[in-house]
Amino acid sequence: MGIVFHHEEITVEENRQRNEYLRRYYNPETGEGNDTGDRWILRLPDAPIPVQYIPKALFENEIMAQRLVECGSLAVYAERYGHDKIIATDEAGRNPKLADGGDATEELWREWIRVRIRYDFEFWAFSFVRIKDKLGAEDIPFRLNRPQRRILGMLEDMRTAGKPIRLILLKARQWGGSTLVQIYMAWIQLVHCRNWNSVICAHLKESAANIKGMYSKLLANYPDWLLDGEKPKFKPFERMANTSVIAGRECRVTIGSAESQESVRGIDAAMAHLSEVAFWRNSRMKSPEQVMRSICGSIMLLPCSMVVMESTANGTGSYFHQECERAKRGESDKQFAFVPWFEIEMYTLPIDDYDSFIGSLTDYERMLWHRGATLEAIAWYRQKRKEYARHADMMAEYPSDDIEAFCYSGERVFDPTLVEKLRRCCCPPRFEGDIHGKESTGKQALQEIELETRPEGPLKIWEYPAKECEMRDRYLAVVDIGGRSDTSDYSVIAVFDRYWMLDGGPAEVVAQWRGHIDHDLLAWKSAQIAAYYQNALLVIESNTLETEHDDSEHSAYILDTLSRYYNNLYARQSPPDSIGQKPPSRWGFHMNRATKALVIDAQKNALREGSYIEHDTQACYEHDVYERKPNGSYGAMEGHHDDILITRCIGNYICSRELPSASSKGHRSERIVNESSI
């Protein structure tokens, strides 16, 4: 999300330091203050720019840069290394001239510029690109703002590593994300690659044409000498209405829209700028996925090849939303990028009384501070918020994170400031892989239990079980049953360590299994994990098992079979069939409207009191997207999951009602554990 300042205390001095950091000197012409890569200083007193901070790679790779550093001036360089072009100098040996009477140092300067622009996008953009000023009618040099420089850093990291450039950009309003992407693609075509074709595709053809218009303005102001003397301009290509070719570079630029994918089908492209993807229509005849295949199917995985999807948000569940989620999970070929509103420089207001303002901050505004906003930015947000009847509408227009960006109709269940605190303990697991017994099911499934290391395996372990078994039910294993197919909900097994609860401390999530598996195999897998963690109390959320078969015989069979071999299984009491009859017990935790409210309240309390430690970032994310629907029900936002969260809710509910106790044995007695005993 960009810069995050980890300071608990909100003070005027800390705010001053933030502003000082954000307003630090930046000059794209000299390179001073540039933070996209290491820079080395080059001093040339007789050059138009006497002091330059050039990219380290430029000095390391270009002999001209090394010689300029050695010579210390253009004149000395021209005299020492330009003898074949120089025919005369003055009496002191200075002011070298070329055969055509031109100034040798001027020609040398141009040669140096042609070298520098291959490594320094910001210098090239400021020196040779003009864009419309958002705050006025004049065209101005393209000086990158802070968000643009951050995104440029991501693009350059991929390019300089020789990797294909792939990015999905979730935009807030008015910071120039589309401008950066298109100008960066122009840089590759004008400076780096010949015969390197590109496609611009937006939700409407007019929008794509507007993006291309930036390119046309760039070419109209571009110096001839940067392109070997040929006048840079768009020329028609083979009478194709949607395609132009750049004179002198032989790079084609094609525009199209998601409304008419035939205009871009089969294009020989190396780069694609896909704009406002969230607004691409999805119908029976065409879908965003089909448009993507039409455009990107032929783009090779080559250095400097480029695919950027960018859009403002347009609700959840869309193709763009799903692709953002895939990228955040690391399942996509694209890196995910988001720019919050408080990184955009224009969104600030002055403050008269800082102490009074700090004292009036709400919990949400304090969360903005901890995420990196200055007090001046928060003052702007507070004033702008008055324009909206609902905070949800403000969050959708000016999102502070990618979750707020996707507007939704419900309301968050969990306080985002508390979720942010929960996130602070998240860390990579100590182990990734899976767990196995001698067999997959039956008695032998609980014998010879061992871990199998496997990168990105379904089982993550943050803390291994204690070597000594000093208490009964120290560990609690909770199971939420999902679907079997890869597109269905996940099944999750979460293990809680309750050791520190005896001294008033928090419970801690120490392990988690998440994947798709047949339900009978899941039951045995959960027993293996529970057995590995000192015969943990095993709580299986049984709704899925019970609703798959009307008579619940299948679920009863699975859990009854499991209970024969695993003796620490959670059970609940069913309502009696008649007055005076002892209620029978049934295995598993049943989630209904009443118990769901109980476990959600328990989870809210756990966050508020800080009574549990979370290590999984996805669990925190599921807290963020869990909402109360307009009809009063609870669930994840469309296109999201809540399977991990449900294990936390059930686990913290049970943790809050029964503490582990000291025991010399490694397992419980043969009594049934149920709601009555808790």
From TrEMBL:
<protein>
    <recommendedName>
        <fullName>Terminase large subunit gp17-like C-terminal domain-containing protein</fullName>
    </recommendedName>
</protein>
<dbReference type="InterPro" id="IPR027417">
    <property type="entry name" value="P-loop_NTPase"/>
</dbReference>
